[in-house]
# Entry
Amino acid sequence: MNSDRDETVGHEATVQGIGISVESSREGDGIPAVLVEARGEVLPIFVSTDQARSMQLALRGKPFDRPLTHDLLVDMVAEFGGAIDSVRIDDLAESTFYAKIDAEQYRSGERKQLVFDARPSDGIALALRVDCPITVSDTVLDEGAYPPDDLDMHQLDDEGDRW
# Structure
């Protein structure tokens, strides 16, 4: 965590949903990915099954019986006088995405800006819960995004879809 914000401007992104790769893993199951749209392209970020379920619940606005980790973190940040302002997916190196979470905290009337390194999957799961902007850098889009028609994914888009 640090208090320096990188002012590099990215492209505003939206989460289109959760997809499953058509190619199978060694275990025989498709790999879940969060599908992020920016600059007219789709950026698939592969995630664990638990993270995919967490994001899918947030996208559908359905609470879990007990708070999931991301729900708990949002509640704790708010209780400590903070807020999550934005999520930036800002780097891609050796097939690994990197992100920053921009936050703020108020203490004794003073505003403190904070930046946390994060996995994009965690940042996206939090952004979906607090409805904050997600941005993606040109570098990440240039290296990892696909035209929508070129992506070989099955999007989970109704209640019956399970992985």
